[in-house]
Automatic annotation (TrEMBL):
Keyword vocabulary terms for this entry: DNA-binding, Transcription, Transcription regulation
GO biological process, one term: DNA-templated transcription
GO molecular function term, any single one: sequence-specific DNA binding
Residues making up the signal peptide according to the UniProt record: none
Designated name of the protein: HTH-type transcriptional regulator GltR
Organism: Ruegeria arenilitoris
Domain (HTH lysR-type) ranges: 3-60
């Protein structure tokens, strides 16, 4: 009995999720069926592919060898489907983008809406998570990151630089006094990330400024900006978010001006996928244009 592609898909899901139930949710089949399909594949290959541990289903040495080949087959099939679809005028199907919540909330909605206008049969999903998206587990087709990853078989493309400044409301400053230097900031209530939940070194803005206490903290940029907009404290904000929060004014612009970059990260095996290539080009171009537009509006 030869293995079939459907069983390979189940195998890949279990290998990535390390759980029959999680793989079942991903594939929309019940866990018992997942278990039977894995057993059928092991029987066809005459080798055990997983061992059960307290952490879940772990690949055996035979499973690890199969995993490499199965990923290659998956990438080839995705590339073939992408080539056929990429040849058509408009894109269709589903594409999922993983992104930190700053870009997910303030850039991707309008960028993806424009792409959708040109591709009415395309379903675009934005996965906003306060952590690095795991592309190897196929959480998303591509991801926006702040740091360029250096490990794994990934395609990494710089999209755009963006600026950040310290901000507060006029009402907050009138009640708590002016801020003329970074040293003055230490006497004010800071808003920022939860220190032990900062998932990227590039986001540790306050520590770089010598500020070690964050009285109002959240793992979400949107929550931080909402708090600052209410006049409750001082925070670091992306310039491209400021048109959405007109109450916030930049302060200490001559002393605190940060630059970070967005990168587009994709599976290396998708570089021949014309459909994803076209979408990635449109996404990158849209983000660059939107950052430039919003930063110019914030400056004006």
């Amino acid at each position: 009995m030869d293995p079939n592609w459907d069983d390979m898909r189940v195998f890949l899901a279990v290998a990535r999720e390390e759980s029959l139930s999680s793989a079942g949710r991903l594939l929309k089949i019940d866990p018992a069926t997942v278990g039977r399909r894995v057993s059928r594949l092991e029987l066809a290959l005459k080798a055990p592919l997983f061992t059960k541990s307290p952490q879940g289903y772990v690949l055996t040495s035979a499973g690890e060898r199969l995993f490499e080949h199965a990923q290659g087959a998956e990438e080839a099939m995705r590339a073939a489907a992408g080539a056929m679809e990429g040849a058509t005028k408009s894109l269709s199907g589903q594409i999922r983008i993983g992104a930190p919540d700053g870009s997910a909330n303030y850039l991707l909605p309008q960028v993806c809406a424009k792409i959708s206008d040109s591709n009415p049969d395309l379903d675009i999903q934005i996965l906003a998570l306060p952590r690095i998206i795991n592309l190897s587990r196929r959480e998303a087709d591509m991801a926006i990151t702040v740091s360029a990853p250096t490990a794994g078989k990934l395609l990494v493309q710089k999209i755009s630089d963006y600026k950040l400044h310290m901000v507060a409301t006029a009402d907050y400053l009138s009640r708590h006094g002016p801020i003329r230097s970074v040293n003055d900031v230490k006497g004010h209530r800071m808003i920022g990330y939860i220190p032990d939940m900062i998932f990227d070194r590039e986001l540790d803005y306050l520590n770089d400024l010598g500020i070690d206490r964050v009285p109002l903290a959240s793992n979400s940029v949107s929550v931080q900006l909402r708090q600052a907009s209410l006049g409750t404290g001082v925070c670091i904000a992306h310039d491209f978010t400021l048109p959405f929060h007109p109450q916030l004014k930049k302060i200490l612009t001559d002393q605190v001006s940060l630059t970070r970059s967005f990168h587009l990260v994709r599976h290396q095996g998708d570089q021949r996928n014309e459909r994803l290539n076209r979408f990635a080009d449109a996404l990158s171009r849209g983000i660059r244009d939107e950052v430039a537009r919003l930063e110019a509006e914030a400056q004006a």
